[in-house]
Fold:
Amino acid sequence: MNEKSANPAPLGLLGFGMTTVLLNFVHNARLGPIDSMILGMGIFYGGLAQIIAGILEYKKGNTFGTTAFTSYGLFWLSFVTLNWLGVSSVAGIGVWPFFGGYTPWVVSNEAFAAYFFMWGLFTFAMFFGTLKTNRALQFVFMSLAILFFLLAAKSAILAYTTISPTDPQIELFTRIIGAEGIICGFSAVYLALAEVLNEAHGKTVLPICPVNQ
Structure:
């Protein structure tokens, strides 16, 4: 007897969306530091949950879902690593593994600019894989690509100009990035809940606008 497989996409979308909303609200929109709540979400929900969703998509034969969820899950794990091992203040207070108060892994703004640009390029390319799915998923990927490119632009400005992070113009730009990131995150949450509720009720509760309709 064949058993019906559950759809792993909502798990991956929620892991991505909720973590993205929290990061952009705290770190960008409110200009607060990246704290342990964000790092914890990045490891377990943004990271591991998406990787699990990607593995389940692999078992279903969905190449796009496998590539997307595992990639963004690993993005969150890498982002946590960069904001843990890559921050000199972490080493300064003797956090493992840098008990000597020194870290060779400090990440520059030039590196972050390249990091976000490459993720933006990857996301923009993946956007074309959504053109035959639905408008909601298209919005998620396009808004995410824009978010990455905005983050790359901010890092490049800080790297190649004398403008400081506390400059009013940079602070305004950061808040704009935060607002865009919150919209992107909530769009993923909406799509996830739509897929769950639409399947649970057997009808369209929240529209996602399939392309073929």
About this structure: Helices lie at 9-29, 36-59, 63-82, 88-92, 109-127, 135-160, 168-201. The radius of gyration is 18 Å. Residues 47 and 73 are 4 Å apart (CA to CA). The longest helix spans residues 168-201.
